[in-house]
Amino acid sequence: MAFPPSRVRRRAWPVRSPAIRFLPLCLALTASALRGQSPAPAVPAGEIQIPAELQNPFTTVTARADSQRKVGDVFYLVGHVDVSYHKTRVTADHAAYNQSTQTVDAAGNVSFTDPQAHLEADHASYNMSSGAGTFTNVHGYVHPREPMRTSPSLTVISGNVYLRAQKVERLDENTYVVLDARITSCENECTGWSLAVRSARLTVGDKAVSYGSVFRFLGFPLLYAPVLEHSIAHNPRQTGFLIPTIGNSSQKGNIIGDGFYWAINPSADLLVGADEYSLRGLATMGRLRATPSDTSSLAVNYYGVNDHGNGAQRAPGESVRAVGDSQDLGAGFRGVINMDYINSLAFRLTWSGNFNEAVSSEARQIAFATKSFDGYSLNFFGERYEDFLCAQQSTGTSNGVSLCNTPEALSDYIIIRHLPSISFAGEDHQLGRSPFYFDLDASADGVGREEPGFKTPFLSERVDFHPELTWRAPDFAGFHLTPVVGVEATSYGTSLLGAHQGITRLLGDVSVDLRPPSLERVFSRRIRHYRLKHVIEPDIRYNLVRPTDPQQISDIVRFDGTDIWAQTSEFEYSLKTTLYGRQDVPDSDPNPPQARELVSLSLTQKYYFDPTFGGVLKGNQNQWQPTIDLTGFAFAQGRRLSPLVTVLKVAPFSNFDTEVRADFSPSGGGVLNAGITSAVHHGDFSLEATEFFVDRLQSLGIGTVVVPIPNSSQVLSSNLFNTRITYGRPDHKGLSWAFGVNYNISESEANAVVGQVTYNFNCFGIDFGYNRFNLGPLRDENQFRIAISLSNVGSFGNLKTRDRLWSANTVQ
Fold first, then answer.
1. Are 263 and 408 within one domain?
2. Helix or strand holding residue 631 (H, E)
3. What CATH number is associated with residue 5?
4. Is residue 332 assigned to a domain?
5. Do 317 and 466 reside in the same domain of the chain?
6. How far apart are CA 770 and CA 756, in angstroms?
7. Euclidean distance between CA atoms 415 and 342, whole angstroms
8. Contacts for 730 with CB less than 8 Å, ≥ 6 apart
9. What's the structural domain count of the chain?
10. Selection from 800, 764, 731, 760 nearest residue 216 by Cα
11. Predicted pLDDT at 118
12. CA–CA gap between residue 607 and residue 569 (Å, rounded)
C-alpha cells in the first residue's frame, strides 16, 4: 500500500518519553499484499493492544488513531496515529502496522522518539522487533546515553548531534547511516558550524565517519575532506591529526604547527606535534597520558626547541614534566612521581608560557612510595634537586658581558641528590596509661651534592636516628605545660673536611611549651545577626639544642632540613588575638553553625641567648634551624632579638579575605619585609592581589640575581605587585574576561602582563589573548593570540589551554 502525499497540516506531536534515543522510521505496505482481499470492517477509534510475540510475548504494541481497520495481519491507522512499543514511539498522519513482521510504515508528519534519538520525517519504515528502519527527508537529533565529558580545551559542550538528511537508515539502536546530510552540534547551523556530507556512519557513543565532507562555519564553506572521523563518545578520543596552529609573536615570529593524536587504547593516549618559529627554529612537543587502573594515572609532557636565534637571545634546550600517582602499589603502599626537568634556566626563562614558571630557578625530580599503619609510616623516597644560579646561555655572554656570576658557566648550579632514601616515622604513642608519649623518626639515605667550587662523591651514606619523649603534664590553674626531650644521632659518609671523610653528629634537644590560660569574652550585643567572641592566646616556648662538638656543625654538608640543626638556647614567645563570629541562633539549637574567624593578629619573636649558635654563624647567608623555623625571610643575624613576625588576617565576609605578613626590625629600623594577599569573589567576579616588599637586600645578602641588573649594588629594596581579575565562566555562554599583571614597583616596570577575552555563542566560542613578558635580555616579547573553539570538535588557533588564565595562573 502506497500512501499519497499528506494534506494534513503539519503539527508538533507531544513526546512524553523522558529520554530521547536515536534514528529513523518509514512506512510502506505494498498494494499486492492486499490484492484480492475484501475490506475489513472498521475498528472503533481508540487504543488497541497488539501482542509483540516475535520479541516478547508479554510486551505489546500500543496503537492510537482517529480511525482504525484491520486486513489480515495489517492494521491501518488514520489520523493522529500514535504507535508505541517499550520506550519507542512513532506518531504520524497515516500508518500501517503489520503484526506478523512487526513493521510499521508511516507517512505525513512522522515523528520517531526513543531514549537516544528524536527524528521527524516525511516517510518512515520501522521494525519494532529489530529496531532497524528507514527514514526519508529527515531532521532531528541523536545523543549518547552519557553526556560528553567537558574538556578544558572546548569552551562549549553540546550533547546532541543534530542532522538534516535526505535519507537515514537505522541499522540498530546505536548505528545509523545518513545520506546527503548536514551534521552539527549547533541547534542552528547558520549561527555555528556544520558538516555537509555525501554519506556518514554514526555510532552513538563512539564516533562519526563521513565521506565527501565540506566543513562550514557561519554558513560559509571553509574546508573539504574526502574522509573525516570525529569522536562523539562520552570521553572524546579519536586518532588523527589536530587542527593546525597559526600565530605570531614578536620573539618567535610567524608560527605554524600541527600535531597527531593517537588513542592507543581506552586507558592511554599519545599526542606529538611540532611548531615552526620563523625567527627561532623548530619546537617539538609530546604528551603521554595513561590510566592503568581506577586508582593510578600518569602524564608525561615534553617540550624542546632547536633554537637558532642570534647572540644573546639564543636558548636551545628541552623540558620534561611527569606526574603520576598510584593509590595501590601492593602491600598497602601508595606511590607518587613528580618530575620537572630543564637543561638550563635560559631555556625556561625564554620559552615558559607563564611568569611563575619562567622566573623559577629550581627543578625537582621526586618519586616516593609510602605506607601508613597504626600511626606509623614507612617511606621509600628518591629526589634530585637542581637550583640554577644564573640564566646561562650557550655562549655564556651578552654583548661581551657574562650572564653568570662565576667564570665556570657550566657549573653555575647546585645539585642535591637523595638516591635512595628510606625513612620510618610515627606519631606520638602513649606509653601504657602514663602521661608520657614516645615518637621516633629514623632514616637512611644515599646523598650527594655539587655546586661551584665544591663536590661530594656522587652518593654517600647518611643514617639518622631521632627519638623523642613528651610529657603531657596535667593542667594547673589553666596553664598547659608540655616538655619534650629528644636525641638525634646522625652518621655522615662525607663532610666538608679536606678528604671528605665521614663524621658523626650527636645532638640533645629539649623544648618546654608553656601555654597560659586564654582570655575569652562573648559579647552580648549582636551585630548583623552575628554573635561575637574575642579570644587572646599567649604561648611561651623554650628550646635548647646541645651538640657534643659545636664546631663540628660547621663541617656538615647540608642536604636538607636534617643537616641545619645548630646549637641554640632561645625563648620563643607569641601572642594571638582573634575575633570570632557566629550566626545568631537560639542556644537550644541542636546544630549551631560553625564559628568563623573574622579578624586575627599574631605576634611572634625569639630571644637568642647564644646569637652565634655555638660559633657556626659566619656571614648573613648562613641560615640555621633557629632562624628558618621563625620566618622564611633572611634577616641580619648575630643579635639576641629576632625580628617581630606579625600576621594579620581579615575575613569579615565569606567571599573576602586578606592576610598581611610583616617582619619588623627589633632595633627600630622599621619593616624588613612584608607581604599582603587579598581575594574577593562575588558571583562571576574574582579579584586576587599579592604584594611583597623586602628592604635592604644587600645588607641581608638576599637572593641570587637571575639576570644582571644595572647598578645592582645600589638596589636596597624589592617591591613586587601581582594581581589577577576574572569575570564570567569560559565554559558557559556569554562574555568572560581576565586580566593579570606582575609589576616590579622598585624598578617601575611590568615584568608580565596578560589579558584574555572570551565570548561563547551557542556552540562555538572566540578567545582573544595578549601576553607581554619583560624578563631581561633573554626575553622581551609580545604575544597576540586567538582561538576559535567548536563544540564537540576542538580549538583552532594559538591560544593553548595551558596558557589560559582560567585554567592556570599565567601571571603568578
1. yes
2. none
3. 2.60.450.10
4. yes
5. yes
6. 6
7. 13
8. 155, 736, 758, 760, 765, 767, 804, 806
9. 2
10. 764
11. 93
12. 9
Q: Could you give the CA distance from residue 709 to residue 713 in angstroms, rounded to a whole number?
A: 9
What's residue 602's pLDDT?
97
Please state, in angstroms and rounded to a whole number, the distance separating the CA atoms of residues 204 and 376.
51
Is residue 350 classed as helix, strand or coil in its secondary structure?
Answer: helix
Q: Where are the beta strands (DSSP E) in 204-239?
A: 207-217, 220-231
Q: Which three cell numbers stand for residue 611?
A: 646569637
**Plot region of 609 (φ>0 → left; ψ -120 to 50 → alpha; else → beta):** alpha
Q: Which domain holds residue 344?
A: 250-472
Question: Residue 152's Cα: distance from chain center in Å?
Answer: 9
- The H or E element containing residue 618 is none
For residue 713, give the C-alpha cell. 649594588
pLDDT for 806 equals: 55
Q: What is the 3-state secondary structure (H, E, C) of 649-713?
A: EEEEECCEEEEEEEEECCCCCCEEEEEEEEEEEECCEEEEEEEEEEECHHHHCCCCCCCCCCCHH
For residues 349 and 466, membership in a common domain is answered with yes
Last residue of a domain, one of 472, 498, 533: 472
Residues 102 and 52 sit within 8 Å (Cβ to Cβ): yes
130 and 3 within one domain: yes
User: In a 3-state reduction of DSSP, which class is residue 548?
Assistant: coil
Q: Using H for helix, E for strand and C for coil, what is the string for 358-387? A: HCCCEEEEEEEEEEEECCEEEEEEEEEEEE
Of the residues 115, 142, 169, the one at which a domain ends:
142
523 falls within a domain: no
Residue 349, classed as helix, strand or coil, is: helix
Q: Other C-beta atoms within 10 Å of 77: how many? A: 28
| Residue 7, pLDDT score | 35
Asked if omega into 144 is within 30° of 0 (cis), the reply is no
Q: Compute the distance between CA of residue 742 and CA of residue 737 in angstroms, rounded to an integer.
A: 18
β-bridge mates for residue 795, sequence order: 789
Q: Give a three-class secondary structure readout of 501-524.
A: CCEEEEEEEEEEEEECCCEEEECC
Helix and strand numbers (H, E) in the chain are 4, 47
Of 67, 26, 27, which Cα lies nearest the Cα of 46?
67
d(CA 582, CA 600): 15
> What is the reported pLDDT for 550?
85
User: Which residues partner with 337 through β-bridges?
Assistant: 324, 367
Distance CA 788, CA 769 (A): 12
CA–CA separation, 127 vs 80, rounded Å? 20
Q: What is the DSSP letter of 501?
A: -
| 682 occurs within a structural domain | no
* Distances 410 to 176, 319, 345, 390, 414 between C-alpha atoms, Å: 63, 18, 12, 10, 11
Cell numbers for 697, please give them: 637586600
Q: How many CA atoms lie within 13 A of 490 on its CB side?
A: 26
Question: What is the distance in angstroms between the CA of the first residue and the CA of the last residue of the chain?
Answer: 73
Residues listed for the chain? 812
**Distance, C-alpha 59 to centroid of its chain:** 50
Q: Could you tell me if residue 367 is inside a domain?
A: yes
Q: What is the mean pLDDT of each run of 10 residues along the chain (812 residues)?
A: 36 36 33 37 51 48 88 90 89 92 93 91 92 94 67 53 93 91 85 90 85 89 86 71 80 89 90 93 95 93 90 84 94 95 91 86 95 92 92 47 45 87 92 94 95 90 96 92 96 90 94 95 85 95 94 90 93 96 81 88 95 77 80 80 95 92 86 93 93 67 38 61 90 87 90 90 85 85 83 71 51 42
Same domain, 254 and 137: no
pLDDT tens-digit map of 666-717 = 887 788 899 999 999 998 999 999 999 887 553 444 433 333 333 334 446 7
> Measured between alpha carbons, how far is residue 791 from residues 28, 216, 243, 665 in Å?
38, 14, 14, 58
Whole-number Å distance between alpha carbons of 193 and 504: 72
Provide the residue type at 547 as one letter.
P
Supply 754's cell numbers.
596578560
Given this model, what pLDDT does residue 547 score? 94
Residue 553: helix, strand or coil by DSSP? Answer: helix
